[in-house]
Amino acid sequence: RIMPIYLNALGHENRWREAKSLLEDPRTPLSDPRRLTLAAFCAEKLGEAPIELEVLLQRAMRAAKQSSHHMEALHAAKLAEDLELYETAIIGYDLAQQDARIADDAFEGLIRIAEQSGDTLQIREVTKRFVRRFPRRNDLFERYLYLNMLSGMEIEATLDEALKLVAEEPSRATPRIIAALGFFRLKNFESAKLTCAPCKIETLDPAQRLVYAAVAARTGQEGLAKKIVENVDASSLLEEEKQLKNFSQNRPLPTTALSTPDN
User: Fold this and answer.
1) 115-122 contacts: CB < 8 A, separation 24 or more?
2) Do residues 155 and 148 lie in contact, with contact meaning Cβ atoms separated by under 8 Å?
3) Average pLDDT, whole number, for the chain?
4) Considering the entire predicted model, what is its pTM?
5) How many CB atoms lie within 10 A of CB 16?
6) Separation between Cα atoms, residue 68 and residue 141, nearest integer Å
7) For labelling, which of 3, 109, 208, 233 has a CA lying 20 to 30 Å from the CA of 139?
């Protein structure tokens, strides 16, 4: 118990080199995963090269695996993520998710990293794993359905699931937008329009507004579509969402763009 207090004191005095030297000594009375993770933290404070930090964190994760210290793996993964060492962070989060008590945190980390890549299919795969682990998390399930629609995967089956959710809670916007995107994908634009019509545009998040706008653009409401998307910031959008925005603004789409009707 004294060692963490002492290390904390060294940190307050910016004595990072002394702390790191202590933490690299296997005789220091801390678990190996914690000791090595803290050594990586000190190394970052000392401005050491990323490869040095990565080596320390990977050693911490191996030690966590050998000792089944999943919580320590989670701590190491979070530090790796903060340091933008994403491949190493994934190793730690994959290890941490084996512990049901912290699996939620671990999967959230994996999703954050996937979102950093901007790869919709990668985000979808991580979310799919999350849904399988936590089948009662409706928010995750709906996110998975949306990513299916966005990436063009399992559209008809996903539409069936979305329509069930609409029937259960007709006043909720999220399942309606997912279903509308499904109809849009299947080029059933009138059904898409009817499905999302009850949604109040001002209550929708940016991605949902883009779906609403794309449907509007295809059902004779081009002016409304342009107005909806004009203030949507594209910087944080996935590629398929950017394509929806372009479609709503009557901009040409690349050959790999989101499936849209022939003109």
Assistant:
1) 116/86, 118/238, 118/239, 120/147, 120/150, 120/151, 120/238, 120/239, 120/240, 121/151, 121/153
2) yes
3) 91
4) 0.82
5) 18
6) 30
7) 233
| Nearest-angstrom CA–CA distance, 102 and 14 | 32
Residue carrying structure tokens 């959230």: 108
Whole-Å CA distances, 250 to 28, 33, 181, 230: 64, 54, 18, 12
Q: DSSP per residue over 37-64, as a string?
A: HHHHHHHHHTT--HHHHHHHHHHHHHHH
- Written as six digits, the tokens of 61 are 């994760």
Answer yes or no: are the C-beta atoms of 245 and 234 closer than 8 Å: yes
H helix count then E strand count, the chain = 15, 0
* DSSP per-residue letters across 50-100: HHHHHHHHHHHHHHHHHHT-HHHHHHHHHHHHHTT-HHHHHHHHHHHTTST
Task: Write out the two tokens for 204.
Answer: 């929708």
Q: What is the DSSP code (8-state) at residue 259?
A: P
Write the pLDDT tens digit of every residue in 72-108: 999 999 999 999 999 999 999 999 999 999 999 999 9
Say how far apart CA 234 and CA 126 lie, in whole Å: 23
Q: Output the pLDDT for position 3.
A: 84
- In whole angstroms, give the CA distance from residue 85 to residue 80: 5
In what helix (H) or strand (E) does residue 34 lie, and over which residues does it extend? Answer: helix 32-45
CA dihedral defined by 62, 67, 68, 70, rounded to 10 degrees? -60
